[in-house]
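debug: dumping io for the single-chain case to check the tokenizer round-trip. Nothing else runs in this session.
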Amino acid sequence: MELLQHYISRRPVALSSSGMPHGARTERRILDAAYTLFVTAPADEFTMRNLARVLDIRMGNLTYHYKTKSDLVEALVRDRMATYSGDILDLLQITGTSPQDALNKTIAYLVRDLHNPEIAFFPQLWARALHDPVAEGMMDEIHEIERQFIAGLVRATRPDWGRHRCDALAWHITASIEWLTIFIGQNRRSGGIDVAPEEEIVSNLYKTV
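debug: decoded output
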């Protein structure tokens, strides 16, 4: 749980603007607008100039808070990771949750989240990572965080397994969820055949433990 709390604490600016200083309110507004532009606009249209136009602010005001597009992308990733970490932490903070239940609930959350339109953020980040070293580094960090957390749950569920076996299974689970993004994301079909219901997918992944 410490890993999740660490990423929650790294959120660039609080979600609620209530009671915030003016500068923090502006940063929240920038991040919200940048997120929408990031997931809806073609990659070449995600520019600082276009964002300033959407926000109806001067470029100087935008670059005062985020000097470069890379700084902005990093802040967007930190913001999304804090949200996901908070959601999973809330899900697991139930009295009596066993390691097995925690692992099952986490896998279920990650699979079912693939239907969330906001999941489009990550394919966009993957595409940007092909030519942006900052985005590539953030993408690697996201994968590593997810793998570490899943590996910790696997070790707690199967203390009789060695670390290497737990880590290998965590790679399998996280890679499987990433692969499913192509087929289940936003209710897509594969070859005209519906993907398996989430319950079946979660059950099959969980059975590997």
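debug: round-trip ok. The mean pLDDT is 85.
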